[in-house]
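Entry:
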Amino acid sequence: MRRLYQHYIGSFQGLSKPVWWLSLITLINRAGSMVIPFLSLYLSEDLSFSLERIGWIMSAFGLGSILGSWLGGKLTDKIGAYKVMYSSLLLSGLGFILLQTLKSFPAVIFGVFLIMVVADMFRPAVYVAISAYSKPENRTRSISLVRLAVNLGFSAGPALGGLLITLLGYSGLFWIDGFTCIIAGILLLWILNPKRRPEQEIPKEADTALSPYKDRAFLFMLVGVFLFGFIFLQYFSTVPLYYKQIHQLSEGSIGLLLAMNGFVLFVLEMPLMKFLEQRTSSTIKNIITGIGLIAASFVILNLGNWPGQLVIGMLMMTLGEMITFPLSNALALQMAQKGKQGSYMALYTIAFSMGHLFGHNTGMQLVSLKGFDLTWWIMTGLGVVSILFFMLLRAREEKQSGVTT
């Protein structure tokens, strides 16, 4: 037990103070992010929208995420990650508070789109900030620490969200989500202000690097990331509906399942990343393993109608997520050219956001037309295709370098 404890503590050592502060800010922001996991349920039950309309709203969610990621990357390369991050937090906080006032279908689509444009400017900026605030050898664990903050907030957020829905209705979610974004933005202004700490200011590079649009290997990787995001995001749109409609779970129980995901990530991701760093397995091979676990979790959902399969499926998805997300993030940062890191990470986040754009809507339409079982088999197949793209990427890298990547 002592060795396990020392190994766990050791996985956090060597990370810079700005990375710890950035993680705390992310924790505060994410702890209040309860609207997104319950958005499909809110649209279905509180606004009485059909599955088809919910699908189109979730597509607007994804389209806004794509535009926001692209805009965030461009602005990060021009004005720096710090300004992009605090602007995104403050403005998205106001947006979530106002979203609850929108009731008509056109207004909700536009509101969700606009909020996601502003909110997802944060994503490429935070990746560049992590790269600037951490040493190369600690980059993967720095990414995991920020993800740890996200998942710790996510473990509390959905559980509290389900409770708030039961006690106060959906309105409470919007207020808490908005205020926590604003609080996180104020803390970022106070703690990580580069004018107060010039040594932590993100360096500016000359605009001479290779464009990510011309980096064929990077573009090739993005296809696999998109397919991975496509199936992973079903756990935050169609899967909650599956829990509700097929297994008759309450919002509180759904929140607890999502909270289990965040809790397991909080406990195990950092030690797992340190363990994988010490192994000889390639990054791409580990990513393939992670995607395989997520694809297999959908098979589990089709193996009967007993509550235990929901827990097993969630645990398999969680383990796959723990492996795939930080390693794919680190791989993208490793491939990014200096001076174009914002643009590279924007494309990385856009590839994942494309999953929002197509995954949610496609999943909803498939469920509406063909039911949940066939939808889960299709998601499994797409996971296999994603694995094939990463296998081809690994073969390409080995051919170019002559060694295992």
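The chain has 16 helices and no strands.
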